[in-house]
Target: DNA alkylation repair protein
Amino acid sequence: MKLYNKIYSDLIKHENKKAAEINKKYHKYDGHRSLGIKVGALDKLLKQYKTEVKNLSYKEAFAQAQMLYKDKIEDTILAGNFVLQNKIDCIGKSELPLLDKALDHFCSWSTIDDFCMDVLQPILLKYPKDTLRFLKKWNQSKNMWKRRASVVAFVRKVGENGEFTNEALALCENLIFDKEDLVQKGVGWCLKDVMRGDKKKVFEYVKKLRKRSVPATITLYAIRDLKGTERVEILKK
Model:
């Protein structure tokens, strides 16, 4: 567990308690902990371990990542994501149950979003059927971070390519009345990006959502790309 000890020790050395207090303003929910390390500084710190991570077997990499996740600190979780991101070619569908367990330790939207884009999306593209099975499970989870992950998995390039539009819409549909603000924002973000891949279908879906009186957060996030008459058409009831 030498690598874990080195990374953890390095993170503690760079702790910024003042910044950690400020972070609390953006993470007003139970369970969030942070060392207050700025994103740029964290990226620079982790990059020095890239070669060492690359030289690990995938089993060793998973063990190191799991230890970083179990600390339940935002910075260590992001470090765990970094480890898996750099071993992504070695991660197969048989590791999905391990990723499922890993999410039990996540503590913030930033750690979930980073995980979705750097770890989960490459696996989704490589093993769509198996990954979708887990996304459907997360979609119904009591854990709000898993519910957010079930839709944030489709943002950016994955949503824009139009390959998973139907699957994304089905998962969003299950969460349109979710009580958690951060889940609602995840749904809106997902809809915005999958709309780029299938404008007509998703536009019509969002228009109907408005008429169903879903939380405004969802529709406002979903229409961020829209302007002029299209935006007006969505917002009118």
About this structure: The chain has a mean pLDDT of 96.
